[in-house]
Amino acid sequence: MVEHMMRSDLMSLCQLFLQSEAAYNCVAELGELGLTQFRDLNPDVNAFQRKFVNEVRRCDEMERKLRYLEKEIRRDGIPMLDIGDNPEAPQPREMIDLEATYEKLENELKEVNTNAEALKKTYLELSELRHILKKTQQFFDEVSDIPIQMQDSGYQDENIQLLGEEGLRAGGQPALKLGFVAGVILRERLPSFERMLWRVCRGNVFLRQAEIDTPLEDPHTGDNVYKSVFIIFFQGEQLKSRVKKICEGFRATLYPCPETPSDRREMISGVVSRIEDLNTVLSQTTEHRHRVLVAAAKNIKNWFVKVRKIKAVYHTLNMFNLDVTQKCLIAECWAANDDLERIQMALKRGTERSGSTVPSILNKMDTQEVPPTFNRTNKVTRGFQAIVDAYGVATYREMNPAPFTMITFPFLFAVMFGDAGHGLIMTLFGLWMVLKERNLIQQKSTNEIWLTFFNGRYIILMMGCFSIYTGFIYNDIFSKSLNIFGSSWSAVSLNKSKSYPHEHYILDPQVNYDGGPYFFGLDPVWQLSENKILFLNSYKMKLSVILGVGQMFFGVMLSLWNHKYFQNRLNIICEFIPQVIFLLSIFGYMNLMIVVKWLKYDSRESGCAPSILINLINMFLYKYVDDDDKTSACYLKDWYAGQKFFQTVLLLASLGCIPWMLFVKPYILMKQHELRMRFHSTNEVLVDGDTSIQIEQPPPPSAHGDHGDGQFDVQEVFIHQAIHTIEYCLGSISHTASYLRLWALSLAHAQLSEVLWSMVMRIGLNGNGIFGGIVMFFIFGFWAFLTVSVLLLMEGLSAFLHALRLHWVEFQSKFYSGMGYSFQPFSFEVILELAAQESTTETN
Predict the structure, then answer these.
(1) Element housing 237 (H / E)
(2) Where in the chain is the domain with CATH 3.30.70.2750?
(3) Is residue 144 over pLDDT 50?
(4) Which of 17, 260, 354, 770 could form a disulfide with 25 if both were Cys (CB 3.0 to 4.6 A apart)?
(5) Can you give 149-212 as a three-state secondary structure string?
(6) Could you tell me what percent of the chain has a pLDDT over 90?
(7) Rounded to an integer, what distance in angstroms lies between the CA atom of residue 121 and that of residue 190?
C-alpha cells in the first residue's frame, strides 16, 4: 500500500484482438471504465482516409444539429433538464434513429422560424404602414401651415410658393399638384437623412417627421428598434427620383399612402384587421415553437452525451489496425497491472452485448518504451498531485512527492502566514467548501476564480489548520497575543486579573526574567516589548534555516529510495553519499550550532555568545584564535574543545565530495563501456563442442539516472556530471538562503497585520457613546474588508507562491526529475467534462 502511494502504478503495454462486430461495444465498455490509454497504430494515415471517418462525420453533423437546437433553447430561456444518470453509449444501429430525430427537429424548427420571421416581417410592415397612415393624416391636416414653414425654412422654389398663394382645395388637396412619398427610417439616421435631402435637392423639398413612440421588433435579430415616420413633398419626377435614391441609401422603407382622407381611413381599417389576424397566427406559431423546444430541452443533454460517446468510440476505433482478413481489429493500449482483470471483464461484457461468440483477447507485450505515469488520486489528494505535476510529471516509477507535499506544503505556507485569526477564517472557508461540495458541484459555476478556489478546497482547509497551529506558536491572532498561561517575566506581570499599561517595555532577561520556558509558543509579554522585532528576527531566521536544511536533507534521502528501487548502485556511491556528506558537513553542522547556542548560552553569557555566521566564515578561511591570546574578542573563542580538529575534518570532507561527485561516476561509466565493448558486443556460444556462433547482444536499457541510449560519449557524460555537481554544490548554499523567505514573509505578514490594526481598528476603539458605536461599525467593516482582501487574499497568495517555489526548486530538485508523461486514459467522463467546459466557454 505504501509503495502504491509513493510511486506510480506498474503499467503494461497490452495488445487487444477485437472482432469487428464486437469492437464498438468493447471500446464503449472501456470508455465507461476509463482505464486504458490507446496508441495510434495509424500515425501516417490521413484522418480522412481512416475506416470509420464516415461515422465520425455523421456524429459531427448530429452534434451540429444539437448545438443549433441548444442555441434556440437558450434563446427562449427554456431550462434544460439534467440527465441524472449517465446514459450508455448507443448501439451503432441506433445512429439512424438519432439522425432521423435530429433531422426532423431541425427541419421543423427551421420551418417554424422561417414562417415566424416572415410573419414578423409582415407584421412589422403593417405596423409601420399603420403609423404612417396615422401620422400622414396629421400632416395633411396641418398642410395649410406648409407655406409659412417653408418660407421660414428658406425654401425658394416658385412652384412650391404657389401652394401658399392659391390655397387649398377641398379635401386637403393643394391647388398646385405636389408629389410626396412617405416611409419610416431608424431614428438615429434621421438627422443625416434630413441634411442629405437638403443638400442633394437644394432645399426644394419639404420634410415632415414624427417619432413612433413604441419600439418595433426587428424580425431578423429580435431586437427592439426605434423608428420615425416621415413624409417628403416635392415637385417633378427629377426630385422624386433623387428622393427615392436617398431613401434607398439610408435604408428607409417607403410605403404607399393614398392622397384622399377617405382612402387613408379605409386603408387603416384594413391594416388594423390584418394586424389582428397576424397576431393570432403569430401567437399560434410561437406556441408551437415553444412546444417543440420544450420537448427538445427535456432530452438535449442526454442526446449530447450519446452523440459524444458515439463519436469518441469511432474516433478511437480509427486508431486500430485491421488484420488481413478484415474480421478483426488490433489495438494497443497502456493499462495498469492492477486493472487488467477489470479490463478483461469489460471486454467480456462488450462481447456479450454485441452478441458475438468469439471472445476478445488481451495480451501483455514486451517493450523497451517507457510507460506513462499513473498516480491514483482522490478528491483530497488531487489538488496536491496537480501542484507536483505542474512542475513536471514524474518519470515512470519515480518517487512521487505528492504524499509528502500534503504535509510540508501547508506547513511551510503556515510558517510564512502564521496568524491564528487569519488561519481560522481560511479554515472556515475551506471547511464550508468541503461540507457543501455536492451542492456547489451541482451549481456548475463557470467563474474561473471560483473554480480555482473550489478545486483547491482541501489545500485551503489544510493551510488554514496549519496556520492556526503556527499562529499559536507565534502567539499571533490578528496581530494580538493571547495571555493564557500568564508570563515568565516578573517585572511586567500579565496575570489575567490585572491590567497592564499601554506603554512598551524593553525586555532584558538579566533584569526581569525569572521564569522557565513558556508553556506553549511565545510569551505574550513580547507584544508589549520595544525589542520584539529583534527577538523575532533571530528566532524566525534560525527556525527557517533549520526547517530548510531539514527538508533538503529529506529530499536527498528520498533520492536514495529512487536509486535503490532502480538498482543503481553507482548513483548511490557517486551521488547520494557525497551529497549527504557535503550537506551535513556544512549546513547540518550549522543547524547543530544553532541548537547548541540555544541550549548552552543564556542571558548572562549572551554578550560572549559566538556568532554562527562568523564561525562558518572562519571555518572556510581556516582562521582560529589561540586560546592563550587574552586580547581576542570573546566571540572568536572556540565553542568546545577540539573544535579546530572537528571543523577541519568537516571542511576537508565537504571539499573532497566535490571531485568525488565530479570525476568518479564518469570514470566508472567509461570503464564499464570499454569492458562492454570488449567482452559483451558479441557472445560466442559453443555448439556440439567445437562449433561457435556469434549472437549479437543489444545494449542494456539505461537505468534511472544513466545517460545515453547505447551511444556512449565520455565528454557528454562528464559535462552532464559537472553541471549536476555545480548545481548541487551551489544550490545547497542558495537554497539554504532561499528558505529565509520563511522568516521574511512571516515578519512581513505580522507587521502588516499590526499596522492595519493600529491605523484602522484603533480609530474605532477610541470612540465613546452611540456615535462611537456607529463609527466602530463602519471602521470594523473597513478593517474586515482590508483583512480579507490584503492579508488573506494578497498575502495568502504570496505565501502560496513562495511555498510552491520552495517545493519545486529547493525540495524536489534533490530527487525528482519530472521527465515522464502522464497517463491519459480513454474515458467518457473526461471527454464529457472537456466538452461541457468548451460549451460553457462558447456560451459565455
Answers:
(1) helix 237-249
(2) 114-288
(3) no
(4) 354
(5) HHHHHCCCCHHHHHHHHHCECHHHCECCCCEEEEEEEEHHHHHHHHHHHHHHCCCCCEEEEEEC
(6) 45
(7) 22
Which of 42-56, 377-391, 490-504, 585-599 shows the lowest mean pLDDT across its residues?
490-504
Q: Is the pLDDT of residue 500 over 60?
A: no
As a whole number of angstroms, the distance between CA 118 and CA 466 comes to: 67
Q: Are 365 and 15 in contact (CB under 8 A)?
A: yes
pLDDT of 584 > 70? The answer is yes
C-alpha grid cell for residue 459? 489545500
**What sections of 436-527 are H helices per DSSP?**
437-443, 448-455, 457-474, 509-512
Q: What is the pLDDT of residue 762?
A: 79
Angstrom distance (rounded) from CA 196 to CA 201 = 8
Q: What is the DSSP string of 763-812?
A: HHHT--HHHHHHHHHHHHHHHHHHIIIIIIIIHHHHHHHHHHHIIIIIIG
Q: Where are the alpha helices (DSSP H) in 318-365?
A: 340-354
Alpha carbon distance 27, 578 (integer Å): 52
Q: Residue 363 contacts by C-beta under 8 Å, 6 or more apart in sequence?
A: 14, 15, 17
- d(C-alpha 135, C-alpha 230), whole Å: 8
**H/E element, 232:** strand 227-234
Q: How far is residue 525's CA from residue 492's CA, in Å, rounded to a whole number?
A: 7
Q: With bands split at pLDDT 50, 70 and 90, how would you rate the model's confidence at 177?
A: low
* pLDDT per position as a tens digit, 247-290: 988 988 888 888 777 887 888 888 888 888 888 898 898 899 89
Q: What is the dihedral of CA 486, 488, 491, 497, to 10 degrees?
A: 10
Lowest mean pLDDT among 169-178, 269-278, 383-392: 169-178
**Cα(118)–Cα(131) distance, integer angstroms:** 20
How confident is the model over 510-515, as a mean pLDDT?
Answer: 64
**Mean pLDDT estimate for the chain:** 83
Class of domain 114-288: alpha beta
Length reported for the chain: 844
Q: Cα separation of 590 and 296, whole Å?
A: 73
Q: How far apart are CA 425 and CA 791, in angstroms?
A: 11
CB 405 within 8 A of CB 830: no
Q: How many Cβ atoms sit within 10 Å of the Cβ of residue 510? A: 10
Q: Which residues contact 15 (CB under 8 A, 6 or more apart)?
A: 330, 331, 332, 362, 363, 364, 365
111 torsion bin: left (phi>0), alpha (psi -120 to 50), beta (else): alpha
> How far is 487 from 509, CA to CA, in rounded Å?
13
Q: Which residues are paired to 229 by β-bridges?
A: 184, 210
Report the number of secondary-structure helices (H) and strands (E) in the chain.
Answer: 31, 13
Per-residue cell: 841:
466557454
Distance of CA 602 to the CA centre of its chain: 52
Least confident of 208-222, 454-468, 617-631, 749-763: 617-631
The pLDDT value given to residue 84: 64
437, burial (CB in 10 Å: exposed 0-12, middle 13-18, buried 19+): middle
Look up the pTM and report it.
0.80
- Residue 442 in grid coordinates: 451541482
- pLDDT category of residue 508 using cuts at 50, 70 and 90: low
- DSSP class of residue 372 equals P
